Amino acid sequence: MVKPNHSASLLIVTAVFALLGCREKNTFVQPPPPEVTVAKPEQRDVTVFIGVAGRIKARESVEIRARVSGFLDSVDFEDGQIVKEGQQLFLIEPEPYEAAVSAAQAEISSAKASREIAETNYDRRVQAYETKAVSEIDVLTAKANLDSAEASVLGAEAALVEAEINLSYTKVVSPVTGRIARHLVSVGNLVGGANATLLTTVVVQDPIHVYFNVSERLLIPRMGSLANLSEEDFENSPEVFVELADGSRYSKPGHIDYIDNRADSSTGTVTIRAEFPNQEGELLPGLYGKILIPEVTEGALIVPDLAVQRDIGGTYLLVVNDENKVEARYVELGSKIEADRVVDSGLTGEENVVVNGLQRARPGIEVVTTVQPAGELQGEEK
């Protein structure tokens, strides 16, 4: 049997440990600072739009009613068409009213004949009185009869005018040019009577109005400029726009043409009206419309909207200080302009705002910055 060489084994183990002891110890190597892109806020004049909910209304809306009683003979329009001022819309049976005109004309003829007799009788009584053939009372009676005959003529003429007016009402015409609704009464129905029957409505849609209410908060700073607006001021007022319920913006601008003379104490708002051209009839009365009022902000500070961060403390931007360390700068934001955002307060305009690499930047860490050229503000998806 061969005996193990314990001395050789001990030498081998000692050599292994010596080799292991000669290796470098593991040490932590600090990673390089993350790279981010920074840019100074852009400063420029911007136009932002104040949005106020409103409702579209026709400039004029007219109820067409039957002003005389009778059966409806005809409907002379197509539902929904454009009608002209003075265009005939309905015909109510005219025959009874034509007969009334004829009767009034006959009554005038009779009254005039009676007046001629009374006038002749009066003249003769006056002549006879000069010779004392009749008494004074006879003359006075003849004069009274003549005056009564004159009054009868006037009454008959007035009755003729009334009959002719009623006859004219049998032809129901449009008082305005506009779009007509459907007819509410069909041919053959009795209309008029004690209550003037509603036959249809006509609305004037060009131009068209949008009414909206402005709150005290928006109105008070502008009270001085609104207090003494003239008609010329309204005509030269800045253009306003209307946004429809689907988010689309009506292509034609309008202008404010009316401001109410008092505020609603229950809501703290003032009613304002804007007028828009509507030749194609794209805006319909009753639709929702959000008025967009332009307001120019001079020297506004602009940052990419995607650079904006939010936490429980509010809204902030990540900025890099002179030591290349990231800081959270809490700000007050204004309106959004396409992909950018107006900063109302919290920045001086000299900060280096992180616009790219936001996922790598954290408050307190050191970063390596790349400056984005001016005029190319564009953030990244967070």
Task: Write a compact overview of the structure shown.
With 382 residues, this protein is of the alpha+beta class. It folds into 4 domains: 35-50 and 298-371, conserved putative lor/sdh protein from methanococcus maripaludis s2 fold, CATH 2.40.420; 53-58 and 207-296, Beta Barrel (Elongation Factor Tu (Ef-tu), domain 3); 67-93 and 171-196, Beta Barrel (OB fold (Dihydrolipoamide Acetyltransferase, E2P)), CATH 2.40.50.100; 95-169, Helix Hairpins (Orthogonal Bundle), CATH 1.10.287. The protein is 26% helix and 36% strand.
- Please, what is the average pLDDT? 84
SS-based structural class? alpha+beta
Q: What would CATH call the architecture of the largest domain?
A: Beta Barrel
Instruction: Report strand %.
Output: 35-45%
The CATH C-level class name of the largest domain: Mainly Beta
Provide the gyration radius in Å: 46 Å
* Element-level helix/strand string: HEEEEEHHEEEEHHHEEEEEEEEEEE
Percent helix, as a range, is 25-40%
CATH fold descriptor of the largest domain: Elongation Factor Tu (Ef-tu), domain 3
Classified in CATH, the superfamily of the largest domain is Efflux pump adaptor protein, beta barrel domain
Terminal-residue CA separation: 77 Å
Largest sheet: 10 strands, antiparallel
Gross geometry: rod-shaped
Overall number of strands: 20
Unreliable residue runs:
none
Q: Total helix count?
A: 6
Number of domains in the coordinates? 4
Written description of the protein model:
With 382 residues, the protein is α+β, with helices and mostly antiparallel strands. Strand 15 and strand 16 (326-330) form a beta hairpin. The strands form 3 sheets. Strands 2, 4, 7, 9, 10, 11, 12, 13, 17 and 18 form a 10-stranded antiparallel β-sheet that branches. Strands 1, 14, 15, 16, 19 and 20 form a 6-stranded mixed β-sheet that branches. The chain has 6 helices and 20 strands. The protein has helices spanning 6-22, 95-130, 136-169, 216-219, 223-226, 231-235; strands spanning 35-39, 42-65, 70-75, 82-83, 88-92, 171-173, 178-180, 190-191, 198-215, 241-244, 255-259, 269-276, 288-304, 309-311, 314-320, 326-330, 332-337, 340-345, 352-356, 368-371. Helix 2 (95-130) packs antiparallel against helix 3 (136-169). The protein folds into 4 domains: 35-50 and 298-371, conserved putative lor/sdh protein from methanococcus maripaludis s2 fold; 53-58 and 207-296, Elongation Factor Tu (Ef-tu), domain 3, CATH 2.40.30.170; 67-93 and 171-196, RNA polymerase II/Efflux pump adaptor protein, barrel-sandwich hybrid domain (OB fold (Dihydrolipoamide Acetyltransferase, E2P)), CATH 2.40.50; 95-169, Helix Hairpins, CATH 1.10.287.
